[in-house]
């Protein structure tokens, strides 16, 4: 710091430094907090979207499975006069649920599940068409005609249920993966909180250090010289002209006071010397 600067300028510079450090710390804290808050909000939003998507997918898969079972029930219930109509109703419902499941899986970016879903979609036509032929044979030709197609329908049923089991397995894997993502998201949020707290503490520590340095500088450059000046003035008022006055070389207000005290000291010493000669 320039020794020729006035005391007021020195104090202004010190306070400017302290204010600058505090402002910089606050600015950094605000920027980090804003960025962290935005990242946390994004993580929370993505997590919520994936939870909703998984829920919708799970519901669609379960409804599709129920409709497959209903199709089989009505195709094999040859005593029901409306069996074919009701089977068709559930077949259409099954296809609609597959569309919902596909849309949900695409939003979740689940290619493995989509592959298993496509396998179910490919297996269903053979299952449904074979079942309809078998049901019509039972109605038109009796047990002999229907039983002839039972083996073919059983194989088609086994194929689609294997595909459904595979799709359910992939759904479970997807649920586990999303659960792991949620856990990682929680860890990310916790880390973000730690970052904000760390930056805040760093800013407080930086401000505290800056304040301590300013206090030390003020004490060294202002308080101690002022105490020396007060001590010199007290000693001079007591008639002690032998003291050494500190700070005469300074170019600030304290130096001006020190030089004034030196002039007073010199004048008083000369006065005392003159009085001594006269005696």
Oligomeric description of these chains: single chain
Query: What is the N-to-C succession of helices and strands?
Result: HHHHH
* Tally of helical runs: 5
Gyration radius, in Å = 46 Å
- The helix fraction, in percent, is over 70%
Largest sheet: none
Strand content: under 5%
Distance between the termini: 51 Å
Q: Can you tell me the residue ranges where pLDDT is under 50 for at least 5 consecutive residues?
A: none
Would you mind describing this structure in some detail?
This protein has five helices and no strands. The chain has helices spanning 7-76, 83-108, 111-141, 143-237, 253-278.
In short, what is this structure?
The chain contains five helices and no strands.
Please outline the helices and strands:
Layout: H1 7-76, H2 83-108, H3 111-141, H4 143-237, H5 253-278
For the structure shown, list the relevant keywords.
rod-shaped, 279 residues
